[in-house]
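Example 293, ligand nicotinamide-adenine-dinucleotide.
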Amino acid sequence: MTERLSGHTLLISLIATPIRHSMSPTMHNEAFSKLGLDYAYLAFEVGNQELADAVQGIRAMGIRGSNVSMPNKQEIIQYLDEISPEAELIGAVNTVTNLEGKGHLVGYNTDGIGAMAALKDEGVEVKDAVITLTGAGGAGTAVAVQAAFDGAKEIRIFNIADQAFENAKLTAQKITEKTNAKATVTDLADQAAFKQSIAESSIYIDATGAGMKPLEDVSLINDPEVIRPDLVIFDVVYAPRETKLLRFAKEHGAKKAINGLGMMLYQGAAAFKLFTGEEMPVAYIKDLLFSEE
Ligand code: NAD
């Protein structure tokens, strides 16, 4: 790694907190090395307080792009010059480009693109699908919007009655108005409606973070009757690789129970393309990431 760094090396940053656990620096640096690209990718512990200065730093130092994670994904929009249509609809940005270091910052959101690419990789067709989705925070919104852009017929969002519920309603309204998909929101407390919706869906996506710390013992599906062999179950969590939901689904006969690793990989690949104009060597990185742990 260090052997190839020089005075010409271009920097890509990741600004979020907490961020030291992230796989993104490894993923991007390994991809730069593999392709012989003169870039380096570093994580910076940046929260909302430091965000304005950090964005100024990106401009001032000609940092060529940045990934953005929590808690900055929404907050950063006010500091950018332009945002892409999907980032606008999602209301959040996870990738910023500063092409040629000229200081014109454009925000994108590749989380939903990553989720749809991960499904495609598993041979799952989103076009014309009826999808039941739990969660309407950052990840859930990105998934819902991209599924709509990719031709899903219906996206049925179920959320608990917390602050994300209002966001879910807003997202559903925007999707229904601006895409060809129909989106609805129902309180997850209505378990009969939830089960009925899954029975009518080909894909169930959990974007709540249930199954990951501190919710590692939580699965939003606990009734074996809900699981069918032809129901695709996709959990955006990738740590642990097998959440309670995925274990339960496999035990009860689901043929496709997919974790969030592919989503993480492909959101990175889409960002890599925006930063460098090159395709990430996905198979190589996949081997590296999937074989770890
Ligand atoms: P968030 O806080 O923005 O949203 C959380 C959502 O889950 C909300 O809709 C909330 O109402 C719901 N929720 C919270 N607790 C719940 C519970 N006990 N029961 C039911 N619903 C509950 O979080 P986020 O940024 O959207 O992240 C969600 C998950 O997605 C995290 O685990 C994160 O690691 C994962 N994620 C994965 C990728 C990836 O590339 N695989 C990318 C982004 C996020």
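Summary: The chain has a mean pLDDT of 96.
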